[in-house]
Amino acid sequence: MSLKPLPSNTSRFEGCTLTGALSVTTSVCNSISVVHGPRGCAHHNFSLLHATALEHDGVGAPNIQSTGLLENEIIFGGEAALERTLARTASLCPACIFVLSTCIADAIGDDAVAVSRMDWGVPVIPVPTGGFLGGVFEKGVNNALCTLSDLAEPCSPEGTINIIGEKNLEYEVEENSTEIFRLLSLLGLSVNIRFVHNISHKDISHLGEASLNVLRDPGAAPVGDHLKARFGAAYIPSFPYGIAGTLQFLEMTAAACGVPFHSAVSEEISVQEEVLAGFSDLAGTRIALNEPGNASPVSAVAREVATALKMKVSDDGYRVPVPLDLPVGTAGIHRMLHRWRRAIHA
Question: Buried b / exposed e across 82-100, counting CB within 10 Å, b at 16+?
Fold first, then answer.
């Protein structure tokens, strides 16, 4: 009898811890991420991050170095290889270096933390990313965010907002952040930093200046708790989703910051009505949601929007796409409806 578990029963089915952490560290400008492990671990992630950057119209390649562990290091230990790689990387004079371990490096017992603490002339920050102990992609993201947050010192908050844990690999990362900026502006609030998306090592030092943190989604709750314990700032558990959810987001954020919300909510209701009016030609259309399951949060938002437009959800309707990630705010609803119209009139 085979004891090998099915992929759906293993944490590896949920993505690589190293990839999650690299999606964060490679978004710190003028930094270099050192992957302590075989070249394949670095090559796979370099290819993924580079392809994603090209989809976002980026022109640069992710700054990743590899210790390139071979059989000899895997048998006798790879700390010397890490020291050689850090010496070479430090000579490039980056603002900081992140050291990310791999399953193999952790399995053989390499002490990447001790090597990182040696004097390299530049800040070297180890990030725990060995996924074989049960870590997944989300764990890698959260580990990286918590580690980087410790680079900032507590200070007096200045009434601004941090955006925490953006999904740097999703296609609409910029569109989603733009929507959050817009909604916050309705309340007279501004963003301190996007932690972490295309910021500098120096920017991280300002993390504690915000009065409130807005998490990308509930999966980042461990980061929100860590930041609250370190800086005292409360957090909103996720970006806004759906018609009612967007209005609720405004109310929650306003309450947390002690600012009025009635004017902002009224203005956003007008925006939502205008968006829905722009798709009035879809009213009454029968649609079938192309989705993984009827009970998903994405399904709930899609059905809310369909109801608002008096569309009928039925198995024999036009099959319309439902996004993998929840559509953020009113702008996300607009993009989803645009795709529905294209599918209906295709």
Answer: beebbeebbeeebebbbbb
Mapped onto helix, strand or coil, the DSSP state of residue 21 is helix
Report the Cα–Cα distance between both ends of the chain, in Å, rounded. Answer: 50
What residues have CB less than 8 Å from 271, skipping those under 6 apart? Answer: 330
Cα distances (angstroms) measured from residue 156 to each of 187, 204, 210, 232, 233: 21, 15, 8, 10, 10
- Spell out the domains of the chain, with CATH numbers in brackets: 8-149 (3.40.50.1980), 152-239 (3.40.50.1980), 240-346 (no CATH)
pLDDT at 324 over 70: yes
User: pTM to 2 decimals?
Assistant: 0.90
Task: Tell me phi and psi for residue 59, to 5 degrees.
Answer: -115, -15
pLDDT at residue 128 greater than cutoff 80: yes
Contact predicate 162/195, CB 8 Å: yes
Nearest-10 Cα torsion for 336, 342, 343, 346? 180
> What interhelical angle do 17-25 and 137-149 show, nearest 10?
40
Q: What tens digit of pLDDT does each residue of 251-303 get?
A: 999 999 999 999 999 999 999 999 999 999 999 999 999 876 555 788 899 99
Report which DSSP code applies to 177.
Answer: H
Task: Please tell me the number of Cα atoms within 13 Å of 312 on its side-chain side.
Answer: 7
Q: Rounded to whole angstroms, how far apart are CA atoms 97 and 331?
A: 37
